[in-house]
Records
---
Amino acid sequence: MKHITPVFLFIVTVALGILACSKEAAYRTNDIQNTTTAANKVQSARVVTSTCAQFAYPDTIFYLTNLPGGNYIVKPVNPLTGTFGAYPDGLKIDKSDGSINITGSETGLKYMVWFVASGTRDTCRKFITVSGINYMDSTYVLANNTATAIPIYNANPLKPTDCSGGCEFDVGPPAERVSAQGIVINRKTGVINLKKSLLNGALGKNPANGTYKDFILEYRLGDKSSKALNHIGFRLYYYKKKSDIPANLENELEDKKGQVFLGDDSGEEEDDRGGGGHGGSGGGHSGPGGGGSDDNRIAFTFTASAASTTAKQGAATAKCRPPYIIVTQQ
């Protein structure tokens, strides 16, 4: 066996030491990179949560007012820099500062108001309701005894209309009232008798298949609006048979239904949920969006040039208003 010289042992020892130091340095570098990445993720999440926590309005339900001086404007609690918008269409919102013109907005609807802070792509959202009534987009078959359209108050089918201070439906100049055009309506409750309306000539003496007409109903509610003048437009259709309704109209009706949020009008429950729109009791259904991992975020695409959102599944082909009331004989 050959003799191993001290010089050779020295060289081997030095080489092993260098290799060990290189591995330790690599481990330290990986640890630093992993720690930095994790810290960045935590910091990003904190920024999003902090921004969304600041995004709020003074209340969740806003009422028309009798105050003179023009429009009733509601502003966010905290000034924020970014882009604002709302879904569905109908809420008059300033996309640059989030101010909402309650007077100029469609009433009786719940809206998802969203905000994207400058320099981010995360979307914060809140639900607000502009007080009033709505009639659901629906098909009524007279042969099935579905002959009345019942108003929904503050987007909550289970909550009766607040008439504590007295309600008045179909107000305004007598010649312009819906009752003068053949609509049979209970002036205390807003319930429309569709069968009697057709018999009363709301769509003419003998309406043909596909006949329709737009109406504007003015009303005053005895709630916190203190009987401020309110209104809603609706479109009445007639078909002899349900099977006569064109496919494109049925599709449009379903599209319009998908834009209506229903549920608890407190707004608190919706704000605490991540993901899609809130499905309330009594027939509510999900709105657009979804998939957010943070309770204050929701996945949306939007165009900066428009103050409205587009759901991931595509732009809506119909507007939320006016509601469509389709009546068939059978």
---
Amino acid sequence: MAQAQRLAEQVKSLNSKIRGLEAALAEEKAKSTEGENHTLTSAAPDDGGLKAVSEAIGSLSLGMDGQAKYHGESAGAEYLQDLLPRDESEPSKQMARVDLPHEILALMHAFPFGFKESPYSKSIFIRYLPTKQRAMELAVTYYDSVAWMYDCIPSEDFSNSILTPIYGADGYASTDAIHSHRLAVFFMILANGNLYDSHCDTLAAEQYYALARAALSVDSILVEVTCATVQALFLVFRFIYNSSQADKEERWMLTGLATRVAQVVRPIKFYSSAGTTNLRYLAWTA
């Protein structure tokens, strides 16, 4: 409030000076004696008010790729250094190198909200599903190297609700029996696992990452959200954190979105094969 009052007073002072200059200009035109001293030439206008206003505006940082961030009046230079990528040559999007058909790219670019009425089905992802053995290897790597910190989907739940519906008893991959958001969780676990695999394939990790974003967009989160939706968003956040330090802003936005979605999802009651009632809670820590 004090800042607004100070700016209002400065604007009022500047308006008064403008009116004075306009009056002096009108008087100058009315004078017929050439060379007569006048208010406009006798003293330079005081720009102290303009300087004060410009200093009160604050700080704005610009990146090489056009990023712009306003930091307020009191932002310090040492704080601004980490808000834009240090390495301006780093690609702004990791997915620039992946080679995917236009249907999946369209879904990928619709992330995170997706299409309310998607023209695509889950079947377009079948060709990108690895063998069951490879999927299990990457899942083990994920749980050993990533999930030790935040385990948003227990390994038993992953096996029962994702691996089994995809591969069934015979090991042949299919997307018919799995929700698109669970499919996104599956791809994100593969992507995170690839980052720490002994045969680390960065391009494969980026492709699984792109597939996960596309899978989440098949069914819009504006229409339906489940625990798998929150899990997928969290795993996307973890992948960005593990693979790149340049996308800080996207990480925070995804964290906020995941939190809002988690507030919508109610604890889901389900029954085990033994008939025991359990409650599944998704817990978040700051």
---
Amino acid sequence: MFYNLIYFNENLYDTYYAFASAGQAVEFKEIESQTDKGAQLGFDSTQIGLGKSSVIKGEIISNAPSKLISFERSLVHNDYFVDFEAGDAFREIEDLSRRMIFRATLPLKIHEAFDMYEVTRLMKSKLLDAGLMGSTSDDADLFNMVFDFDKVKLPVYNNDMDTLIFSKLHRDCLLIEENEFDELEEDNIVLAKVKKTYDGAVTLFDPLKDFMNLDSNTRKIMESDIGSHKQLQPIYHDTNAIEVEIIAIYT
């Protein structure tokens, strides 16, 4: 089996693989194998061992594809796992409940209302206007902390069914470049855990909470001064929805 991995969240893998393996997940660092070759020469009750032993040492290869394969194998006989790739059509997604893990072909789109660089520009302007950031070296450190681009989350969703599926991808878990993000919209296989189900209105993404590292006081100041800037406003959908935590995306 060959995987072309697009996204892999190792933190989620570590958490759910331990549960799927009944708490017995072990990361092997080294294997030692000993073999004995030779014979015994005996005179009455005296035994003399002739031969030698050899030790073969090696490390288990532990990378994202091998971890994904091990994790999927551990899920096969678990009642909380639904594999739409091996069974029924994906139309039964509405039947999934909280805490279930599923695998399915699921194209994803980054929400069109989200522009990472425009959000950054507007947010920096608002921080300056509010007197929360200036031009000193300390302010530069604050900017790097608030806008840690490796750790930002991207709002993705699929609305091909009656139930909206949505999630937030961690940018540092993506294994493709930014100019390849359109690959997410292809018929990729998604391995994910159901986080929460919603009946009616749902917030898909809140830039002040999901995009930047702001403390609660700073966030309240920013919320009162968003005004008409749609890029900084939460993205809402009025529909039944399932929020998922995406562990892996691959073809």
